[in-house]
């Protein structure tokens, strides 16, 4: 009897644990689904807010909608365009007295009459938008909410109209103008969400489900406008249902006893394996951290060694020449004045070299820290190359180098300043390592992966070992401290980081005494968003 009692307790315990596990899993599924629905709807609302702020912060919008309203322009660029391309159902423009003077709604919505006088919820939204206008020179902060007009529920976004080009807040009827976009939350939208994210029965519900099987749409006043409800998944319960027959079988005393032993042993084994895997992962993480620390320490040592030379050399010249000038070592006659002027020029050259070196180090730091922000646009390669050559004109003429740079008529999608820095570093290196009377060629062509720009020179070339390390920080093609090679070995490292930031590629083809060709590829046009 004690054995039977023990087995009965074990059976009850197993069933209780199974039921608790199923119930916990069901609750977790409800919580996860509620989070998913909230993320989808709120993300859609934030997207609407972003579009609203973008349009409100547009000079053409201010000029044609606020300053001198142009009905044709408004309908074509704000109303109709928003409906067809941004899935906006209602467009409102509110003057300073909270009266809508632009109302553009989808044909199947009969809401224009309700909007002639702005509903309190939209008045609150306009007030919040004006409060979030922010500094004049910055994009306005959009405000979003949910509203109900009769039986129709909308997500709404609003932003204050602002000039992009000047620090002035346009006004109409004594106050800032507000642009509002409304998007209807209807069964079509919810059906699409349900299909995309595998949510069964997603619909608008009249009341909140206290079990958490719904998502509340909160208005500007903090109260519920409507709720989204759905059919909750019950993976735990479904799993238990699928085990009905096996559970009947395991009611047998022997089978239950053996199954319990097996489950216990398997749990112990899995825990042992999990602990072993966790130990291996922790050991590997510690090894990686140690290696990273070693690399960082070596990089610091190399940096200090390199900088001690590259900073000390021009500093010694600056200090030496400035001391000669200060002490009037060669007297104060006309001949001495000529020498002093020459020393002053050398002091200026040394200072300019130090400034360039420090700028390069700061650029590397910004790139490595992810603080280098690209402002890409379509840039003419011919104009960029011409600008680069004009900046290097004096050096090119001093070395009597022959430059070949035929017009390509091509453009790239890049940050103009970053492209100029890439070209200056690459062409500057070609000039630096090409003997007087040599030649440099710059060409561009279209390839399947983008626009390729090749810069070739007839300089001393590089070994394969130098090519492999060329893009590393402080690499100077085999030159080290104490050589006559100018530069700190930072330029190519900056080039590689800038091109990577543009999602481009760069390679070096070179051999000793046969010159060098550096080819980089940049996109010709902006990358399409994922799924486009």
UniProtKB/TrEMBL annotation:
Annotated InterPro entries: CHASE4, HATPase_C_sf, HATPase_dom, His_kinase_dom, HisK_dim/P_dom, HisK_dim/P_sf, Sensor_HK_Regulatory, Sig_transdc_His_kin-like_C
Source organism superkingdom: Bacteria
Q: Which SUPFAM superfamilies match?
A: ATPase domain of HSP90 chaperone/DNA topoisomerase II/histidine kinase (SSF55874), Homodimeric domain of signal transducing histidine kinase (SSF47384)
Read off the PANTHER family from this record. Answer: SENSOR HISTIDINE KINASE RCSC (PTHR43711:SF26), TWO-COMPONENT HISTIDINE KINASE (PTHR43711)
**Which SMART domains does the record cross-reference, listed alphabetically?**
HATPase_c, HisKA
Q: Name one Pfam family in it.
A: CHASE4
N-terminal signal peptide: none
Q: The Histidine kinase domain covers which part of the protein?
A: 306-526
What sections of the protein cross the membrane?
243-263
Class in the EC hierarchy, top level: transferase
Q: Which reaction does it catalyse?
A: ATP + protein L-histidine = ADP + protein N-phospho-L-histidine
Supply the name of the protein: histidine kinase
Species for this entry: Thalassobaculum litoreum DSM 18839
Q: Its Gene Ontology molecular function terms?
A: phosphorelay sensor kinase activity
Q: What is its EC number?
A: 2.7.13.3
UniProt keyword annotations, A-Z: Kinase, Membrane, Phosphoprotein, Transferase, Transmembrane, Transmembrane helix, Two-component regulatory system
Name residues in a coiled coil: none
